[in-house]
Amino acid sequence: xxxxxxxxxxxxxxxxxxxxxxxxxxxxxxxxxxxxxxxxxxxxxxxxxxxxxxxxxxxxxxxxxxxxxxxxxxxxxxxxxxxxxxxxxxxxxxxxxxxxxxxxxxxxxxxxxxxxxxxxxxxxxxxxxxxxxxxxxxxxxxxxxxxxxxxxxxxxxxxxxxxxxxxxxxxxxxxxxxxxxxxxxxxxxxxxxxxxxxxxxxxxxxxxxxxxxxxxxxxxxxxxxxxx
Length: 228
What we know:
Blueprint: H1 3-19, E1 26-27, E2 39-40, E3 43-47, H2 52-57, E4 63-70, E5 76-83, H3 88-91, H4 95-101, E6 105-108, E7 111-116, E8 120-134, E9 140-152, E10 157-158, H5 161-175, E11 177-178, E12 182-189, H6 201-219
Parallel strand pairs: 1-11
Antiparallel strand pairs: 2-3, 3-4, 4-5, 5-12, 6-8, 7-8, 8-9, 9-10, 9-12
Helix pairs in contact: 1-5
């Protein structure tokens, strides 16, 4: 390990230790509207179920919004907002954790920048996950999903769980406040080979990214800086 890395690690440990001795500060206003639009361009949304397991696992005060969106072409998107409660340790985590716990295998997770008109380039983490499911004829076949996510705080966004953690610690140490972060997920199944005229991976990614462009303006306050 290089000297530079040792110093960075030492500084991070000091920050972690100092936070436990600090008093609790006030919470900033949230940077989002915790409400998903009923319609968005060609998409129509219906409320999705928030499971009892999600409510019990995540911390007290965690809030949710979820819709299943469909269009006239038979496509479907699952969109969820999770807004943390006052205990960040139990309210916010990387979606990779819950997807793996649900039996999915993570195969790829690049950072993808989505150009949001009038707001900037939003950094998202694009997860490609696969699991085996039983087809109608009894065969075991691979089901592949793309899930894009990002975190939104009081005044900014990030696709990095570690960067969000650093921002939190800096806020408490140097600014005297906490944030209630939200994370957004937009997911869809790659339907090529599963149904006639199904979408390829590239087509599914383009569909999700186009949806995100329309989702950000009604859900993110104007005061929130979007990525670059």
